[in-house]
Design a protein that fits this description.
Elements lengths: L4 E3 L9 H10 L9 E8 L5 H17 L3 E4 L6 H12 L10 E3 L7 H6 L3 E6 L7 H11 L4 E5 L10 H11 L4 H16 L8
């Protein structure tokens, strides 16, 4: 298995501006490594001014180097507010290629904002929080597969790294075709990630 990475300071640490700037100073020297695809997972956690400043510094770095960007949106009750803050901020970068940006952890109340603005939308599948496989499929059936992908997690909360293949099985049960399943499970991630010349799949 060939492993790839993204580089940034996580939004949870971005509210300490001194520490965050120290980390930001280290990132550029690693961006030319052969398996670093872009800048991410940047974004907002508590929607603070400090977080937004570090977020914008990351975006500028990605724009300057023509790199893809992976963006984290806040959890639960702050998600819509944070998503709108992120979209407003991104709109100020005139040289940003929206097709090279994926905004992750979308849910039913944020997905249209992201897609309508021209960005990719990521659905992070969890058994309980964020987005379950069935909820993700519901969104696919409403919005289609263009600029959408699914991913799973294995982190500090209750998670299931096998959520994506389980979702594929549920799509099959719900009468989606093999072509539709391959599009969302494989082709879309490949299409987005291939915007980095370092990605090979």
């Amino acid at each position: 298995i060939k492993h790839y990475s993204w580089l940034c300071i996580n939004p949870k640490e971005a509210d300490d501006p001194g520490f965050a700037r120290e980390v930001m100073d280290l990132i550029p020297k690693f961006l030319d490594c052969p398996t670093v695809l872009g800048i991410g997972e940047i974004g907002l956690n508590k929607n603070t001014r400090n977080e937004l400043g570090i977020f914008e510094a990351h975006v500028q770095l990605a724009v300057d180097r023509n790199l893809p960007i992976l963006i984290h949106t806040p959890h639960l009750e702050d998600k819509l507010k944070g998503t709108k803050l992120i979209l407003d901020s991104l709109a100020s970068f005139s040289k940003l290629e929206r097709g090279k940006v994926i905004i992750d952890h979308v849910e039913e109340h944020t997905i249209s904002h992201v897609l309508d603005a021209g960005y990719w939308a990521g659905m992070t599948l969890y058994p309980e929080s964020k987005c379950s496989p069935n909820r993700a499929i519901d969104m696919l059936e409403i919005y289609g597969t263009d600029r959408l992908w699914m991913n799973s997690a294995c982190d500090w909360g209750h998670s299931d790294p096998l959520s994506v293949p389980k979702c594929a099985l549920e799509m099959k049960r719900r009468k989606h075709t093999s072509e539709q399943i391959e599009e969302i499970i494989y082709q879309n991630p490949r299409r987005f990630l291939s915007q980095s010349p370092k990605f090979d799949a």
